[in-house]
Write a structure and sequence with these properties.
about 280 residues, alpha+beta, Jelly Rolls, Arc Repressor Mutant, subunit A, 2 domains, 6-stranded antiparallel beta sheet, 3-stranded antiparallel beta sheet, globular, AraC family transcriptional regulator, sequence-specific DNA binding, DNA-binding, HTH_AraC
Length: about 280
């Protein structure tokens, strides 16, 4: 079963779903959540995870969990509810990876896909929803196919280490990512500040970033700021911000840098993006 949940609308009874999941609970199926909102916390088996746009949480059967978020925050998400027998069948299709796939989904975890894999996964899930209104006999195979493709993409996702401890003690790269995610809106956040904060060389940080994130520090920071700017623009009719205000709030030092960076990520200018997504003339 696949659900896509929004703050404002849903193809399920969101009120009933929210009531059922507002306290610590568990299921007899696998729950795989692909988060598309701004930020939330998930408690899974007494471990707290901070989720950002594109993050994935895997929750095996009978594992207690709870979602925490601020009221009014965008918490759009896909929720895959996969019965154990169906996951077993999918794993059998890949006989050499059968045990690895089952072990992967049997362990609670916090994962992140690269942008291309995330886009592909969302495309597969979107196609499942496209067939939701078809008769079962007309959609069963195509639904199973796209669900299988989604689960295999997630199987190859990169695990995000726990935030317990600190970088000097355990060298977990997640501490660096967490620091950036907390400070990216500050215009003085640059490579030098990160290297000073964590007492590592620029060369080592650059190498580490490429290894862990498959992109360099600058690309990650620009993408983070541009995505945040897009969220502000999407709500520009409510927050009444100018594009200069959006630039400043997103951590860009000046408007020309904001313009170039935003266009690089979204292939359009901030002004055209606003007009396309909000019908606002700026």
């Amino acid at each position: 079963m696949l659900k896509k949940s929004y703050n404002y609308a849903s193809d399920m009874d969101l009120e009933a779903y929210s009531a059922a999941t507002s306290s610590l609970h568990y299921h007899d199926h696998y729950e795989i959540l692909i988060y598309l909102g701004n930020q939330c916390q998930y408690i899974v088996n007494d471990v707290e995870y901070t989720l950002y746009n594109g993050d994935i949480i895997i929750i095996p059967p009978t594992i207690p969990h709870l979602m925490l978020s601020e009221e009014g925050i965008n918490n759009s998400r896909y929720i895959l509810m996969v019965p154990q027998n169906l996951l077993d069948q999918f794993a059998m299709v890949n006989e050499p990876l059968h045990e690895d796939i089952l072990n992967f989904y049997d362990e609670p975890g916090h994962y992140r896909l690269d942008q291309e894999s995330l886009d592909n996964t969302l495309s597969y899930l979107g196609k499942i929803l496209d067939y939701a209104d078809y008769a079962v006999e007309d959609s069963e195979f195509v639904t199973a196919y796209h669900l299988y493709q989604s689960l295999m993409k997630i199987f190859h996702a990169k695990k995000i280490p726990s935030m317990a401890g600190n970088y000097k003690d355990d060298k977990h790269f997640s501490h660096i990512i967490y620091y950036i995610d907390q400070h990216f809106r500050e215009s003085d956040l640059q490579l030098e500040r990160i290297t000073q904060e964590f007492d590592i060389s620029p060369y080592y940080l650059s190498k580490l970033f490429r290894k862990e994130m498959n992109q360099n520090f600058h690309e990650y920071l620009i993408e983070k700021r541009a995505n945040y700017a897009a969220q502000l623009i999407n709500n520009i009719n409510t927050n009444k911000l100018s594009l200069q205000d959006v630039s400043n709030a997103s951590g860009f030092g000046d408007y020309s840098t904001f313009y170039r960076s935003f266009k690089k990520v979204y292939n359009t200018s901030p002004k055209k993006y606003a007009q396309q997504h909000t019908q606002t003339v700026l």
